[in-house]
Amino acid sequence: MTEGDIVLTPLPQADGRVKNRPALILREFPPYGDFLVCGISTQIRQAVTGFDDIIRHDDAEIEIALICLFPARLYEWIEF
Questions:
Q1: H or E stretch covering 26
Q2: For the segment 15-59, what is each residue's pLDDT rounded down to a tens digit?
Q3: pTM for the whole thing?
Q4: 80: pLDDT confidence band, cut at 50, 70 and 90?
Q5: Is 69:55 a contact under the CB 8 Å cutoff?
Q6: H or E element: which one contains 28?
Q7: Where are the domains of the chain?
C-alpha cells in the first residue's frame, strides 16, 4: 500500500458495528507501519459543513478520476 491508494478497512459505524469501508491512504508514517487515512462515503447528505470536504470528479486538484461525489473525512490511524 502506498499514499494515494484506496483500500477497504474496518471502520466503526454510528450504530457501533464495524464494517469494511473504503478509505484513501493520505500518508504513511514509517517506521511504524501506520497510515493516516480518510474515509470515503457516497452519502453526501450526511456531510458535516466545515468538517467534511466534498470531492468532485472534476476537481482540478484531484489526480484520480472518481465516478461519484463523496465527502472525505479525515478519520484515524490504521495499522496494517
A1: strand 18-29
A2: 989 889 888 888 888 887 888 888 887 777 777 888 777 777 676
A3: 0.60
A4: very low
A5: yes
A6: strand 18-29
A7: 6-79
Q: Residues 71, 44: contact at Cβ < 8 Å?
A: yes
C-alpha span between 41 and 54 (Å, rounded): 10
Residue 31: asked if its preceding bond is cis (omega within 30°), the reply is: yes
Nearest to 68 by CA among 46, 37, 51, 44: 44
CA distance 11 to 20: 6
Whether the Cβ atoms of residue 77 and residue 35 lie closer than 8 Å to each other: yes
Q: What is the rounded distance in angstroms from the CA atom of residue 26 to the CA atom of residue 28?
A: 7
